[in-house]
Amino acid sequence: MYLSTVFLFLGDLGGGEMLVVITAVLLLFGADKIPGIARSVGRGMREFKDATNEIKNELEQSIKDEPKSKID
């Protein structure tokens, strides 16, 4: 996976800007807290994805279970 596709939402972000962002994150949170933050973000993303999949499955199931109306 290309780094540019991962940060696509940030627009045209170059190497210098990435270095500034990484440095700012290190200064704000410290190197020891970053893995914990990344783990928490990953868990949150996984829970969000699971919830969306669950809603999608429920909607598909309700569409399958819906009785078809007869046209006379």
UniProtKB/TrEMBL annotation:
UniProtKB keywords: Cell membrane, Membrane, Protein transport, Translocation, Transmembrane, Transmembrane helix, Transport
Transmembrane segments: 6-29
Membrane topology: Single-pass membrane protein
Cell compartments where the protein resides: Cell membrane
Major location (coarse): membrane
Coiled coil ranges: none
Pfam families given in the database record: TatA_B_E
NCBIfam families: tatAE
Name this polypeptide is given: Sec-independent protein translocase protein TatA
Organism expressing this protein natively: Pontibacter toksunensis
